[in-house]
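Recap from last week: sequence in, structure out.
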Amino acid sequence: MSLRFDVAAHPGGLAYKLLAGLVVPRPIALVTTVDAAGNVNAAPFSFFNVMGTEPPMAVLAPGDRDDGTPKDTAANLAANGECVIHLCDEAVAAMMVECARPLPPGVSEVTRAGFTLRPAERVRVPILTECPVALECRVMDIRRYGENRLVVVELLLAHVREGVADPVTWKVDYAQYAPIGRLNSPDGYARTLDRFTLRLPAAD
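Predicted structure tokens:
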């Protein structure tokens, strides 16, 4: 027996509570952007994933403040069309969560969280040095669906900590890489240390 939850009839808070708890674990994008004054914003998003490879692309969903104005990430992406998406392991998890603290526009989370910055190569947005993966991105499209904002970005260049991916085969070594994932709101997270494999079935 199963229970029915009419999410279409209850959009918003109730739908978020259920769906964010069921669709797990979700990858976390710690996104850096810059505003017109050059201030660096960093914010985590778990409504995010890679969505294609020709071209390499990802989608994330930055939201609005309670008064309806775009949060810094959304405003900066619309204004200058560039970002860096970082993936986080447990060593930087607390720093990542600190970047979710509500701050006034133009106030950077980077220093408060303890991150250090270094320049990117193809975008003007800097990289958070401590993260194991940083993906330089350019905005391809921004669309609104009701109250949802979907930002499609092209992945231009991946910076990967030495040992995580083989420079010849590009294969990732999970003995060296254990990103964290998002569970339920507001404080649920998952480790990716307990893994198993299943072979794909052969063709009949």
